[in-house]
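Task 17 of the worksheet. Students: predict the tertiary structure of the chain below and write it out as structure tokens. Keep your answer in the requested format; marks are given for formatting as well as content.
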Amino acid sequence: MKNITKKALVNSYKKLLKKSNFNQITISDITNDCQVTRMTFYYHFNDIYDLIEWDIEEKFRENIDIEKNSYATWEEAYLCLFRLAYEEKEFLSKVIVSIDHRAIEKFLFETVLRYCLKIVEEKSAGYNVSGYKKLFVAKIYTHTLVGFFINWLYSGMKEDPEKLVKNLQSTLFGTMRISLGIDR
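Model answer:
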């Protein structure tokens, strides 16, 4: 029930955003459009920035959560992330410059790290690789992937996601076994 109201508030915000700039929309505008009280808004969100961050994180969580979705490869999951952002391009391009990207990065880092850890475990299976080394390598790859995605997002999402993911795959994951000390 709580998420239904949150989604309704987000939908009202997005509707208003089509007609106005980010900094012109008020909480009163959102609550009037959604036909709820300001108290209802503040029950769910601290401010408009909180509403935007929740919406972005919720979309990513629904679509790239490793526990909910079984992607055959990391490339499928990463491409899903790019496609999702591209589908929301109009919305994201208006708000991304106004929100604290650290919250988005933190969420993405935690999500992508789970994928990278899974890949590292698969690549190192049967080899004597310490837990520290596995985590270190997974974090390096995670920082690279999240940083690359955030840069793509903030630079206007101009490059083709499929081409980017293909290039990342050949550049990054061809070296993982070397990073783990398996191949020399």
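Marker's comment: The radius of gyration is 19 Å. The domain at 49-179 is CATH 1.10.357.10 (Tetracycline Repressor; domain 2).
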